[in-house]
Amino acid sequence: MKIVYIAHPISGDVSGNLLRISTIIRHINLTEPDILPFAHYVVDCYALDDTVPEERERGIKNDIALMQASFIDEVWLYGDRISNGMVQEIILANKLGIPIISKSEGTKSFKYT
To answer: In terms of pTM, does the model score above 0.85?
Structure first.
């Protein structure tokens, strides 16, 4: 089974974006039998306050550690834009040699290298 990191904007409409991410993960689970969608940051969004700099930094630290653990096969980009957090995920994925795939129109114009 391929493990795919789901990158999606969070800031702005946090609750709406979490719902969109949940819908994406549900769709992948129901239509892609060989893909395991992974979006650990969803739990951090409920446990940490993104508006508190120290808590946001902890979430980013968690994100970096999990990406560096070398079990993610690809990063799939979703959303209407590439957020600042997604840029950092893309940079890290590039550094680690993890393939990046745009899955929505809003992420297709971004240059990943």
So the answer is: yes
110 CB-near residues (< 8 Å, 6+ apart):
77, 82, 90, 102
Residue appearing with tokens 């609750």: 15
CB 59 within 8 A of CB 51: no
Q: Identify the CA nearest to 75 among candidates 113, 29, 38.
A: 38
Question: Domains (ranges, CATH) in the chain?
Answer: 2-107 (3.40.50.10400)
Q: How far apart are CA 82 and CA 9, in angstroms?
A: 7
Give the tens place of pLDDT for each residue, 5-46. 999 998 888 889 999 999 999 999 999 999 999 998 899 988
Angle between helices 84-96 and 53-68 (to 10 degrees): 30
